[in-house]
Amino acid sequence: MSWLLLVIVGLVAGTLGSLMGLGGGIIVVPSLLLLDGVLPILQNVTPQVAAGTSLLIMIFTGISSTIAYAKQKTIDFKSGAIFSIGIVPGAICGVVINRAVNTDDFLMYFGFFMLVVAFTFFIRKYLKPMPLRPKGYKRTVLDREGNEFTYGYQPVFAVVLSFFVGIISSLFGVGGGALMVPFMIILFGFPAHVAVATSMFVILVSAFIGSISHMAAGHVNWLYALALVPGAWFGGQLGAAINRRISSDRLIFILRIFMVLIAIRLIFQGING
Q1: Could you tell me the keywords of this UniProt record (predicted)?
Q2: Is 139 helix (H, G, I), strand (E, B) or coil?
Q3: Residue 130 confidence (pLDDT)
């Protein structure tokens, strides 16, 4: 029964992570910590082990989702490569910081972090993308409703920003999508579907680097990973398929509501220990 529940956690994490470009860590990390001691096979799960194991799982979610989104031709690979330049060193720094965090503080910080991100989605209509300079990266695409989007950014700023996203990625084991997607939509003007698909490609890179760093530090539980991987793989495919069938506005609505609910749960758990 315990193994089956972990498979289901992996499936839910992979589906929601792929659907919203978050990678699934926002499900895997709190699930491992909250179920610690509740399930017989989950014992003494530290924030470090939760984050390390989560990032390993997201490699498989990332591969599965990237394949699916590549077939849909919604990934901006050039932007993904630019963001990855900052993500990689940031992910390594995040592992180092992660070692000094205890469980209750971790849950509370994680909850507040997600609440801030969710808030940005509620005010996104009042925010305008950053103005582009002549040498900035710029692209025009059509979304699935036929609406034209022109988005872009300054590559140097994007690399610096993604460095800090990489730190958050490894620190919390979330893959960076929880910040990368809002930044792409709100700051750079990405259409939601392109932001989600590109985020999953970036998450694949950051999760790979972050998980290697966590492995070296002994933060990965391979038994937990074995149970979570199958669900995460199929969830990645399922999330991409669902993403293809819903509008951008509905996708953003689901994303912000989901983040608020999870944030409140984590903060409550962290405060009450």
Answers
A1: Cell membrane, Membrane, Transmembrane, Transmembrane helix
A2: strand
A3: 67
Give the three-class secondary structure for 229.
helix
DSSP annotation string for 153-207: E-HHHHHHHHHHHHHHHHHHTSTTHHHHHHIIIIIS---HHHHHHHHHHHHHHHH
Domain that holds residue 188: 2-272
170 in Cβ contact with 92 (< 8 Å): yes
Q: Give all strands (DSSP E) within the chain, no chain letters.
A: 137-142, 148-153
> Are the beta carbons of 114 and 261 closer than 8 angstroms?
no
Query: Do the Cβ atoms of 239 and 15 come closer than 8 Å?
Result: yes
| Angle subtended at Cα 224 by Cα 222 and Cα 227, rounded to the nearest 5 degrees | 110
For the cut 80, the answer to whether the pLDDT of residue 216 exceeds it is: yes
What local confidence, expressed as pLDDT, does residue 36 receive?
A: 77
**What domain count does the chain have?**
1
Backbone torsion region of residue 39, taken as left when φ is above 0, otherwise alpha when ψ lies between -120 and 50, otherwise beta: beta
Instruction: Write down the number of H helices and E strands in the chain.
Output: 10, 2
| Structure token pair of residue 182 | 């809002």
Cα dihedral across residues 89, 46, 64, 169: positive or negative: negative
